């Protein structure tokens, strides 16, 4: 009998972020390690973001120096902390983060508006 391992690739605008075997995780555990971020607001609004993702005791970082709305990111992890800064004048930025049944939403308006977000 052969055993196959389900490899999950997490991809965003910056490319491949993580490659983690999920064979040992139940569907419920997978839901609790998938962190989905949706960036919305004024179409074309520019932002920078710095994400710190902790998974199995290790922390990795993802930096987006010049993203634009709309954008979406998916990370595998147990915790996420992030700082998002709106770079555009007279624009609105909304950040929605979901992990399992936990959800965090924040928004800011005007250049320099900075959000600090986290989810566990």
UniProtKB/TrEMBL annotation:
Polar residues composition-biased segments: 99-120
Signal peptide: 1-24
PROSITE patterns listed in its UniProt record: PROKAR_LIPOPROTEIN
Record has Signal as a keyword: yes
Domain of life of the native organism: Bacteria
Region ranges (Disordered): 97-120
Record keywords: Signal
Stated name of the protein: Uncharacterized protein
Lineage: Bacteria, Pseudomonadati, Pseudomonadota, Gammaproteobacteria, Oceanospirillales
